[in-house]
């Protein structure tokens, strides 16, 4: 995580968009008060994308003393309220904007805070996009250095629309080491490239299991897959995150391992 933090802190002070070398997005797409918007994405679910987004956001807020927001854009499967230990619903300001719920120094917005936990959302694409629009520009984020967006898995309409409607400064790709996950990660990279969103790098999650008794690493899902993919696609490799009981239990119990 420390390698992550150095990269993102440097980006926040210089401006990710300026570093990218890409032409800036249309100015009116920018969310008022938000300096940079970073998407944490994957081509498929189950690789630890939300866990990565949560720990990155909290670490940037706590360790780097940055003003951070966290948007849970996974409308159908919101998990941020559990991991961020959010309670209640957002209040509404005088100008009819929702006020994000704050915990661990991070301002959070999630569909999971707006609907009952047991309720299943049976929505078509236009309704999803309207909800995402409300959770971005219909929110009083205040002044933020970085808004971290926990993207929905896949490369469909929602992902493309978020990339085009928000002035994304860059995307962080999360994958596990095996070929099946990396194949989908490559699709995610290509999607962001097509909509001119810079790739900040790829992070390998669940790289190995660290035995709590002997501390020996066991490469359950293979070894070095994300590093190889980064080299082949000309991306930065941002590091490995092992399978650790503390990360799993901390996320489930909303006690983050920072």
Automatic annotation (TrEMBL):
Cofactors (names):
[4Fe-4S] cluster
User: Which GO molecular function, any one, fits this protein according to its record?
Assistant: ATP-dependent FeS chaperone activity
State the UniProt keywords alphabetically.
4Fe-4S, ATP-binding, Iron, Iron-sulfur, Metal-binding, Mitochondrion, Nucleotide-binding, Transit peptide
Name the Pfam families for this protein.
ParA
Q: Which is one Gene Ontology cellular component term of this protein?
A: mitochondrial matrix
- GO BP of this protein: iron-sulfur cluster assembly; mitochondrial respiratory chain complex I assembly
Location in the cell reads: Mitochondrion
The similarity annotation says: Belongs to the Mrp/NBP35 ATP-binding proteins family.
For this protein, the record's PANTHER family field holds: IRON-SULFUR PROTEIN NUBPL (PTHR42961:SF2)
UniProt name for this protein = Nucleotide-binding protein-like
Name the source organism: Fraxinus pennsylvanica
